Amino acid sequence: MVSLIMLGIIWVYARRGSQLPSLKNKIFHGCLLVTFSAVLTNLLSTTMVSQYNNFPMWLTWIVTTIYFILTPLMGLTYFCYTVSVIYIDLEKARKLIIAGTVPGILYVLLVFSNSYNKHIFDITAAEGYMLGDWVSLMFFFFYLYSLASVGVTLFNRRRLEKEIYHILIVCPLLTMLVIFVQQLLPYVMLSGSAATCALLIIYLHLQNKQISVDYLTNLPNRQELLDMIGLLLKRDAERSFVLLIVSLRSFRHINNTCGQQKGDLFLKEVAHFLSKIGPKGNVYRFSGDEFALLFYKENLDDARKCVGEIQKRMQRPWQADEYRFMLSAAMGLISHSGEAETVENIINSIEYAVAQAKLGKGGKICYCDKEMLQKLERKRRIIQILEEQLEHPSFEMYYQPIYSIEVDRFLYAESLMRIVDSPIGPIYPSEFIPIAEETGLIVELTYIILDKVCKFAGKLRELSSEIEAVHVNFSALQFSQPDLADRVFDIIERNQTPPEMIKIEFTESTLAESPQVVADFAMKMLDRGIMMGLDDFGTGYSNIATVIHIPFGTVKLDKSLVEAAMDSENSAMAVRNLSQIFKALGMKVIAEGVETEDQKQLVTEFGVDQIQGFYYAKPMPKEEVLQFILGRK
């Protein structure tokens, strides 16, 4: 009875655990079922044969026959489970399992023949229950499968983790020992207890090694989803399925308003709703406020119908206790149609689709179609190319001369990274710079760029050019590095570059994100003679009050300000006043993006000090810009 209770507990928790339909999980549940049935029939048979006059003879005979069948089959199911744990190759595992069932089938046939020959047991009204001369076959087959399990484990010991190896070895040996004791004490029922203890050890250490259920929503978690997708791809890569991610928008506002506990109640409500309308058993907690719905038995139309129900529900308020909120959701949907893909690619694709959906308003949904997958694949290739550039920097540096109005010469140049030759052709900065910033690769790339610029500055000195400084752009991510100043000083000193020949520029967004960090860095640079410049002023991230507290040498007016000044007298007046304010603060003002004579005339009237743009010079490779600069001496 104790064994039955323990098996019941294991069964309940196993059902709440991983529901991944893998061979290992299926066989484990089969082990539970066979063991539970064997223990139950053992109890029933023992009771019936001890009181055979109180039960119909045919019923006692059937229950006892089932007991004799199931007891050795506990060993068979354990053997199958051992094979499923050891062999990842499903085809190989299935062949071994099929071979292993042959003795079991033979034994079952022998048990069925007992009704005619009475070689295993017999029950009569006169003499009651009697064991036959073949009864030892039950123990023989049990030992056979236990030894087979040990043999398979020993054969594969080098492939197994130490803990798994020990469990797969100890469990059958422990079970055989207990069964041997039962043979010595036939009136003590130990077979069920032995199998139950083995299953308990397996469950605690193998089956339940990873938590697969989200504690809050009681849904399968992200890892369970990844395992399920991996299983679908492994079983049948050509099989189609649909993955839908539902991401709640601005959910942090709910937590901030009514507290996290109430926020959890809303999440539970959403989870309950999705579980009702989504594919049964395949709704997952993907992340904090995101849920995943996996449709692999249904089709794309079912997924679209589910999307419609979600959008319809989001038009009504959600309530948790006394709080009512309107929720919106961004949704990404990807349909796997049998193309060769990995779990990582699928997850990256769906997360990209969700990110694109979030760029829209309210409950926008983004279908990850072939065009989007192509864009994502191109992004992956660009990331790979950028990573390769860190190992072997082959990218080119272009330089755009900056014209000084006061001396009527080019005294400065801005450095610009270019990838003109790659396996996917030229990649423009507007495409690879955001990707480099998103991935963090921009940090190390900037150090390489600074090193290349220092070498270019050395070449300018060697040729006695009039260029006084070269501008280098720093990303906002650069300022997250604790050793930024030291790395910059080290690169400049290693190249023996005069500090005044390097001017570090960063955008307004950087200043808005980390004003104090930027200010501290600027002071360290100023102490070493390295000037700082503010790039793209006018894009709306900072204000003059912030700018005046940092020792900038230059402020570069964004081309949008120049274009606005051409279209509006009010804008022109504002840009003129900005220029005068910055000049009064001791800064040089640069107008960038100047492309026409009219624009050049306008910014000259504003009193800017320098002009950068196609009107005077385009960005050029190193050799070409050297010819351009030296030819104008």
TrEMBL record:
Transmembrane intervals: 27-46, 58-84, 96-114, 134-155, 164-181
Domain of life: Bacteria
Domain EAL, first and last residues per copy: 379-633
Residues of the GGDEF domain: 239-370
Keyword vocabulary terms for this entry: Membrane, Transmembrane, Transmembrane helix
Record PANTHER family: CYCLIC DI-GMP PHOSPHODIESTERASE PDED-RELATED, CYCLIC DI-GMP PHOSPHODIESTERASE PDEF
Protein name, UniProt field: Bifunctional diguanylate cyclase/phosphodiesterase
Gene source species: Faecalicatena faecalis
UniProt lineage: Bacteria, Bacillati, Bacillota, Clostridia, Lachnospirales
